[in-house]
Every structure is written in structure tokens, then in C-alpha cells.
Amino acid sequence: MKHDKIGSVMxxxxxxxxxxxxxxxxxxxxxxxxxSGLPVVDEDDQVIGVISETDLMMRQAHTPAGPYEADGRxxxxxLTALTAGSRRRAAKARARTAGQLMTEPPVTVHAxxxxxxxxxxxxxxxxxxLPVVDExxxxVGIVTRRDLLRVFLRPDGEIRDEVVREVLVRTLWLAPRTxxxxxxxxxxxxxxHMERRSDTEIAVSMTRQxxxxxxxxxxxxxxxxxxxxxxxxxxxxGVADNWLRGR
Length: 247
What we know:
Structural class: alpha/beta
């Protein structure tokens, strides 16, 4: 079973900044290209950081019109005595270049990573975009949450064909009509009678991993509950059991 790679959905024409790019030029790049963030690269085009609109807002709060404390100090002055994160925010409030504004180290992804892997990285690191890099960490593209959501626009018929081909036939060695597979708005329904309970679990688990699947409705039944069989007996049941155990 193959997953779509990041290289198939990323944007290759990337708006970027250098370490010394002035603050106003960064703001202009974001505004002119209507993007909410961009990567910062060095002279070898390697990604060294990422700038978001939030980073620029920290600097904006430092303008003369920004809020001040009662003693006349800017709002961020007291942050230097607090956490490392607070000190970084205070430094960004005084930033004049992209290198001073950027968040580092950058969270990146390789072009041969799957869409699922990229989505998990975004969710875990709480970022809205990922610079895409090659084997030498040079910038080759960028992917956003919107790009990853395109996978859910995959046609239902295409999803059904992959479930039948990759899950039922190639993995479980079943005849295509053994299990009824229907897909509506990305929701896959599996209906049929199988020999073993472990096979039904494999079918449901693998179907959930297919690109574009929103959910799986499990209507599968089985003749034998082989999940209670002793390990030495289970080894006789075939390669599908090895997949289920993660081998």
C-alpha cells in the first residue's frame, strides 16, 4: 500500500527570506504573496528558521504606539527576568531582520515523507506549515495544512479500488468479492464474513490508513476468534498475522 508523498502536494515556488532580510521586507513579502509565514534560508539555501505573522506582531507591539507599563517601560521589559520563551519573545520584539525574527530550529519535512507523516508532525509540533527539504536540508518546497487536506478530496471510487486491491487482494489474499466495499464521502463500509477475527482487524486497520479515508464502518463478521489462539498455533495462520503483530 502506497501513500501519497509530500512531493506530490507541496508548493515548489517558495517565498523565502535570508538571515539579513530587513523586517519591512519580510512584512512586504508576506503581504504581497498573501502568505502567513515563510522559511529563512542561509547562503546554501538550507532552512535555518521559520517566520510567521505572529513573529511580526511581536515586533509591532514594540512600536511607540504599543502598550507601556506604569513606569514608562515597554510591555516586554519585564519578560527578560522570566522564562527562556519569554526572553525569546522579548528579543523578537526588538528584531530588525529575519534572522532575529525567526523561530529556530525549524520544523521541516522531507519530500519523500508521506502526507500522513507530515500531518502528524504538524499536529505534534503545532505548526501551520512545513518547509520541505532534500537530503542536504536545502529548501525544495513548502506544504501547508490546506495542502494536506487535499487528500480528502480523493474520489470515492479511487479509494474503493485501493481498499480492494491493496487490503483484500494483496494483503489478505482474498477474492475481490469476498468483502463488500462501499465508499461514501470518504467513509468506507466493510461488510462480509471472513474466516478469522484477526483478518477483520487487519482489514479495518489498513483501510483506515489509506489516503483520503475519513472513517471506517466495520460490519465484518468472522468464523474463528483466533486472537485467543496460543502463539505457536497462531504462527501457522499465515503472513497476515505477522503484519498484525507489526513484524
